């Protein structure tokens, strides 16, 4: 027995050590499983450049969600009408740590680009709609065009000599310009940029004659006297530009276009994560200072349930498909 005692004691200690280690591992695993979401920063992809409407909205939300304990890191991934950044989102892990703020261009691209590397509806989980924003037709403050009628007359007199800038092929700014071209019965030339900021810079420099830009991006320059606003794309006048007529009022009958913005996650993101994000986004958009900021920029907060936004995207793809085709817009123009 004396030879076996050390063996028994050693084995008991070893078993106890193993049990304690197992218990610790289980406790650690349980702690990790119980870690509240989010426990590290969330990447918010903006598929357009700095100064774009999506960028401005993302940064407003980023600040307010950070105040609520959800840290968002905005990452601009511009190009191909927003499809480059959206493709990054589609391939990201469905863990709630990669999101994207997309625009109406997301639905437009489904028709405009025949070979997208993702399914516009099936590869994403909606979080919430964020805002609705009119576009406004702007020209350089020194431009000879004082009204929409002046612009259309000049374009009719010299077809193909007036250019319009956009935030990229497939963006709402592109489709807005194509609709002006179609409904105004003029031949104006599309010049795509990688973002609204770059496009507006060239409008103000006189390198391109006009742009139908989101009010959130254009209004500050209009107020500074660097751009002249000729007309808004919506059926009603924009609150931020009450003295600027709608394009329909200004001489383009039946013109109406409204751009929307919302947050997406990769398909398969856990529903409790989607719900938490939706709740916080809705809270942020209800804050008085956020609502006031959006209104001064011509935007209207339009929060929704995830389910409603999912349904809305599918309906927008269907609704905008014939508009895209009738406008003559394509990924090559």
Distance between the termini: 92 Å
Number of domains: 2
Q: Mean of the pLDDT scores? A: 89
Structural class: alpha/beta
Your description of this structure?
The protein is an alpha/beta fold and about 325 residues long. The chain folds into 2 domains: about 40-130 and about 260-325, 3-Layer(aba) Sandwich (D-Maltodextrin-Binding Protein, domain 2), CATH 3.40.190; about 135-250, Periplasmic binding protein-like II (D-Maltodextrin-Binding Protein, domain 2, 3-Layer(aba) Sandwich). About 45% of the residues lie in helices and about 20% in strands. The protein contains 12 helices and 11 strands. The chain has helices spanning about 5-35, 55-65, 85-90, 105-110, 150-155, 170-185, 195-205, 215-225, 245-250, 270-285, 290-295, 305-325, and strands at about 40-45, 70-75, 100-105, 125-135, 135-140, 165, 190, 210-215, 225-230, 260-265, 300. The strands form 2 sheets. The chain has a 6-stranded mixed sheet with strand order 2-1-3-10-4-11, with helices on both faces. Strands 7-6-8-5-9 form a 5-stranded mixed sheet. β6 (about 165), α6 and β7 (about 190) form a beta-alpha-beta unit. α4 packs across α12 (about 305-325) and α6 packs across α12. Mean pLDDT is about 90; it is low at about 1-20 and about 25-35.
């Amino acid at each position: 027995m004396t030879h076996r005692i050390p063996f028994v004691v050693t084995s008991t200690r070893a078993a106890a050590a193993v049990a304690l280690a197992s218990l610790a591992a289980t406790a650690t695993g349980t702690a990790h499983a119980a870690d509240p979401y989010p426990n590290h920063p969330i990447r918010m992809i903006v598929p357009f450049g700095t100064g774009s409407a999506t960028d401005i909205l993302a940064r407003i939300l980023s600040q307010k969600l950070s105040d609520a304990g959800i840290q968002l890191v905005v990452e601009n991934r511009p190009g191909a009408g927003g499809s480059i950044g959206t493709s990054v989102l589609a391939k990201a892990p469905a863990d709630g740590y990669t999101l994207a703020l997309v625009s109406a261009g997301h639905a437009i691209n489904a028709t405009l680009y025949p070979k997208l590397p993702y399914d516009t509806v099936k590869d994403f989980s909606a979080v919430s709609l964020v805002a609705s924003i009119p576009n406004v037709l702007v020209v350089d403050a020194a431009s000879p065009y004082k009204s929409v009628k002046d612009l259309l007359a000049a374009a009719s007199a010299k077809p193909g000599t007036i250019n319009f800038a956009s935030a990229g092929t497939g963006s709402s700014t592109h489709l807005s310009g194509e609709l002006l071209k179609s409904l105004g019965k003029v031949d104006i030339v599309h010049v795509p940029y990688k973002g609204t900021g770059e496009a507006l810079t060239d409008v103000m420099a006189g390198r391109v004659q006009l742009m139908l830009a989101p009010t959130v991006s254009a209004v500050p320059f209009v107020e500074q006297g660097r751009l002249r606003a000729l007309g808004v794309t919506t059926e009603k006048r924009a609150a931020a530009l009450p003295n600027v007529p709608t394009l329909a009022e200004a001489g383009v009958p039946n013109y109406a276009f409204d751009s929307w913005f919302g947050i997406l996650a990769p398909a398969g993101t856990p529903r409790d994560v989607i719900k938490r994000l939706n709740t916080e986004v809705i809270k942020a958009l209800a804050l008085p200072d956020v609502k006031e900021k959006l209104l001064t920029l011509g935007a209207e907060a339009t929060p929704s349930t995830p389910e409603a936004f999912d349904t809305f995207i599918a309906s927008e793809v269907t609704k905008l498909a014939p508009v895209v085709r009738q406008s003559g817009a394509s990924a090559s123009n």
